[in-house]
């Protein structure tokens, strides 16, 4: 009987995914009490057919000489920690988990929009600190309307379209978007208008970042971009921290150049204890949790494991990243 392919998991997965995995592969899981160092990882990758490596940066040097290795699977849709072309040159496929998280991430982004606009996080802290002492708080704590305003989506892709759906059908918003190419379906369904970034920044009440991090999108929102936004606008980042020049954003928020920011992702994660965001009122913060509902994380793990199994067996996984 042929032996099962061997795979390595850098982190645990739910029981359902493990049950499926054990039917097809033999596996080891990293002991979560120790950080996984590069040298350990290199030695492990030399001995396996595939690895689940969410959150670990892997370059060509790390997989060089790993002759048995056929696939690296990440349980995320973003793959900015990897270079799929370099990996392919070493004979290793990279897979990710698109589609299964789209609705869940769009929900969180809308939560950030609502919290930022209506100052929900700030007002929550206001009450918890015992500062609500009479009737309605003063107009200094009033927020902005969301319905029928203009939303600008930078990165109208799979998740961007789900955000557009909520914006149009739920809140009657006008929709602008910025991509390199047209998204005809979004234009037809949501009456979305494709515009240059500068136009999107100057016309939008809500600027939502949903682009992948790449050399082109790193610090796409810098000091100049922030200056183009309305002083009443809210910036929402559901993509990756480095899409914003965080220092420029902190300056803009401290000088009230924009109304506020609602952020799920940061240049450094977890956010350092002395980070200026921790004491700013005009920010809403969530800890990179866009896809993190129990059901969606289970679906992502399952999809990642299915990709891992297929790749380790020498078959073509569903979600091969082309780069
Ligand atoms: N906060 C969280 O927990 C999560 C964050 N994410 C992040 O969201 C990103 C998007 O995910 P998803 O919607 O599935 O990805 P998609 O690839 O479906 O969409 C990305 C969109 O961005 C556009 N885009 C890419 N590069 C550029 C560029 N240089 N300038 C302008 N537009 C660009 C693309 O259009 P075009 O090619 O035409 O330019 C595309 O429409 C992920 O890569 C990940 O980083 C995803 C899930 C959860
Ligand atoms: O950030 C999460 C992802 O899936 O990408």
UniProtKB/TrEMBL annotation:
Single GO term (MF): NAD binding
Family to which this protein belongs: Belongs to the D-isomer specific 2-hydroxyacid dehydrogenase family. GhrB subfamily.
The enzyme's E.C. designation: 1.1.1.79, 1.1.1.81
Record's keyword annotation contains Protease: no
Matching InterPro entries: D-isomer_2-hydroxyacid_DH (IPR050223), D-isomer_2_OHA_DH_cat_dom (IPR006139), D-isomer_DH_CS (IPR029753), D-isomer_DH_CS1 (IPR029752), D-isomer_DH_NAD-bd (IPR006140), NAD(P)-bd_dom_sf (IPR036291)
One cellular component term from this protein's GO annotations in UniProt: cytosol
Catalytic reaction equation(s): (R)-glycerate + NADP(+) = 3-hydroxypyruvate + NADPH + H(+); (R)-glycerate + NAD(+) = 3-hydroxypyruvate + NADH + H(+); glycolate + NADP(+) = glyoxylate + NADPH + H(+)
Domain spans labelled D-isomer specific 2-hydroxyacid dehydrogenase catalytic: 7-322
Alphabetical keyword list: Oxidoreductase
Entry protein name: Glyoxylate/hydroxypyruvate reductase B
Xref: PROSITE patterns: D_2_HYDROXYACID_DH_1 (PS00065), D_2_HYDROXYACID_DH_3 (PS00671)
Organism: Shouchella lehensis G1
Gene3D superfamilies the record matches: NAD(P)-binding Rossmann-like Domain (3.40.50.720)
Domain D-isomer specific 2-hydroxyacid dehydrogenase NAD-binding: 110-290
EC class: oxidoreductase
Pfam families: 2-Hacid_dh, 2-Hacid_dh_C
């Amino acid at each position: 009987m042929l032996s099962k392919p061997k795979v390595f998991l850098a982190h645990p997965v739910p029981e359902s995914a493990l049950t499926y995995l054990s039917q097809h592969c033999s596996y080891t899981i990293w002991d979560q009490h120790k950080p996984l160092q590069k040298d350990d990882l290199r030695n492990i990758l030399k001995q396996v057919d595939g690895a689940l490596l969410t959150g670990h940066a892997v370059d060509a040097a790390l997989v060089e000489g790993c002759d048995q290795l056929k696939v690296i699977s990440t349980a995320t849709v973003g793959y900015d920690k990897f270079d799929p072309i370099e990996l392919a040159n070493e004979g290793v496929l990279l897979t990710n988990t698109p589609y299964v998280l789209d609705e869940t991430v769009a929900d969180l982004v809308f939560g950030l929009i609502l919290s930022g606009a209506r100052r929900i996080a700030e007002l929550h802290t206001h009450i918890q600190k015992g500062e609500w002492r009479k009737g309605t708080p003063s107009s200094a704590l009033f927020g902005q309307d969301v319905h029928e305003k203009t939303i600008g989506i930078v990165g109208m892709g799979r998740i961007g379209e789900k955000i557009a759906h909520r914006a149009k059908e739920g809140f009657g918003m006008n929709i602008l978007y910025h991509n390199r190419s047209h998204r005809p379906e979004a234009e037809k369904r949501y009456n979305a208008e494709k515009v240059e970034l500068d136009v999107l920044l100057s016309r939008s009440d809500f600027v939502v970042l949903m682009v992948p991090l790449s050399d082109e999108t790193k610090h796409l929102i810098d000091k100049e971009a922030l200056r183009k936004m309305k002083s009443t606008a809210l910036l929402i980042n559901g993509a990756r921290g480095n899409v914003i020049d965080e220092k420029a954003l902190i300056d803009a928020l401290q000088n009230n150049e924009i109304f506020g920011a609602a952020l799920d992702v940061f240049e450094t994660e977890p956010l350092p204890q002395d980070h200026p965001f921790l004491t700013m009122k005009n920010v809403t913060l969530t800890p990179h949790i866009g896809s993190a509902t129990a059901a969606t994380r289970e679906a992502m793990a399952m999809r990642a494991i299915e990709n891992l199994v297929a790749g380790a067996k020498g078959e073509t996984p569903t979600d091969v990243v082309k780069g």
